[in-house]
Structure formats: structure tokens, C-alpha cells
Amino acid sequence: MLKKFLVIPLFLVVFLATMAGCAKASSAGEVSLATAPEVPPSITRTQPATVTIGLETIEKRGQMADGVEYDYWTFNGTVPGPMIRVKEGDTVELTLKNNAGSKHAHNIDLHAVTGPGGGAVATNVAPGQEATLRFKALNPGLYIYHCATAPVPDHIANGMYGLILVEPRNGLAKVDKEFYVVQGDFYTEGKLGEKGFQAYNRGKMLAEQPEYVVFNGAVGSLTSDNALKANVGDKVRIYFGVGGPNKVSSFHVIGEIFDAVYPEAASEPVHNVQTTLVPSGGATIVEFKVEVPGTYILVDHSIARIERGAVGLIVVEGPEAPDIYHKVR
Ligand SMILES: [Cu+2]
Fold this sequence. Notes:
Blueprint: H1 2-24, E1 26-30, E2 33-34, E3 49-65, E4 68-75, E5 83-87, E6 91-98, E7 109-110, E8 130-136, E9 141-146, H2 152-157, E10 161-167, E11 177-186, E12 196-197, H3 202-206, E13 212-215, E14 228-231, E15 235-244, E16 249-254, E17 258-262, E18 270-273, E19 275-278, E20 282-289, E21 294-300, E22 311-317
Parallel strand pairs: 1-3, 3-6, 4-12, 5-10, 11-15, 14-22
Antiparallel strand pairs: 2-5, 3-4, 6-8, 7-9, 9-10, 11-13, 15-20, 16-19, 16-21, 17-18, 17-20, 21-22
This protein binds copper (II) ion.
């Protein structure tokens, strides 16, 4: 009896405290997500808010390269998963659903989370189930998120990663074009270029000998019809991450110099950088103005990897700038 009397007031206290907590931060509703290479729009509100995110883990067959199929494990059906954009100080309520058609349990570890496992333990979900995590985005920056269900390397190797941007309180400077690119290494049964369905090869993953090293999950995701586009005079910002599971990236754009790099996505930029090193499970933000028309090539300057797929294009259109660049004879 005594227990019963105690339980009811305790429930009321918790309920009222929760309501008071909710009243402090306004609710800004669902966060808009973007599929690579798109970036969600910048956040115009100036105050932190409570925001919600819905992600679904989906295992599906996709194209690794021309004529090469692979069984990816994904967030929302794409590699990388969607880019998430929140604001410093936001309270984020993330619901992770595991598609009923999945064969494996999945979860999410966001490097933007302060708390055990980055949220992985709290979001471990069997096929057909869902879980909800609430966290406060304390530190501004650009962070990798990934699945951390054991064996973790298998889940990452199959494509379970993406980026979450925690915009600083005062926002980021306005630019003309923003792009979202994540590098990953893939380990197929067949050798590079071998046609048909290719299963995952765990031995190659453990030996750290990928067949493919690609941007945005597949060879050709940023070339020909998928090339990025900009105009002469544009200021371009790339949110670049490395999902891994194993390889780091010597990220470089052939024909450009980064006016600013936020090394490892830290808050303070450095200037005039040619190539920036991005760790596995890390990210960077690079900015550059495009002054001369033409085609610029995104690469991992561990340059053998261009043969394995790590190539992307930015096609810049506009008037020639012969005072900056021209062929004399
Ligand atoms: Cu997983």
C-alpha cells in the first residue's frame, strides 16, 4: 500500500519535470535530411530547439560499379546515409527503425553524441523493431555516424555510415554551393571490375585490402551525369567524411586550392591547403572559390585508388579567366 502511494507522486514529479524541460526549448519539428551529394538547407533559427529525426536501416542490393552488384546495408537505403543538420544546443530525438526485411540487428553511433556508445546501446534494434534516443548536441562540428552492431567492421564495410552537421550557434558563413561526399572502402569476393553479383569478403576486409575505394557508395556516383556543378565565381563548400572501415583519405581537388579547411572538422579553419588528411571515422569541411571554368577532379591522393573508384568531378561553367589561367601556345 505504502509503495503504491509513493509511486503515484513520483510519477507526477517525473511528468511535471519532463513538461518543464520541454517548455524550455521550442520544438522545431522534424529535421530535413538530404541524400548525397545534396546537403540539407542551413538552419535559420537562432535558438536551440527540440528536433526529431527518423532513420531506417535497410539491407538492399545495389550497384557498386557498372555491371557489379553488391548487398549494401544502409541508413534510409543509401550509402552514405542521409546528411543530418542540427544546431548546437539542439535536443535531438532520433528514432531508428530496422526494416522488417532486414536479416541483421542494427544501431547507430553518432560521433556528435555525448554518452555511452554514441547512442549505439540505446538504439540496438532487431528487424521490424524501433528505438528512440534523445541527446543534446553539445559540440558544433561535422561528425560521422555509423552502425556499431557487432561485428562492427562488417556493418561499416557494407555501407552503414553518414554525416551529421552540428551547426555552430552563430551558423556558418553563406556559400553558393554545398556538397556532401563520404569515402568508403569495399571488399568484394570478385576482383576489381569482375562483373555480376559480388558477395562481401571478410578476409579482404580484415587484411585491409579493398577492391573498391569510392565516393558516395559506388563507382561513378560523382562522374558523368552525376558530376557536381558550379558556376565561375561560386564559393563551394564540401562536407567530406570517411566511413572506412579501414582506409584514411588524402582528400584533394585537382586544379583547386582549398581557401579554407576545417581540419578534422574542428571549429577553426586553416588556409591555403592542397591536400587534407581525413581519418577513418572522421570528417572535414573544405571551402574554395572557383575562378576558372573547367572540370575539377575530387580524388583521394593515395592515387592508386582512382583506379578503384575514388574519383568525382565538379564541372564549373562560366566565362574564361585568362588572367588566372590560360594555355599560351
Ligand atoms: Cu548495422
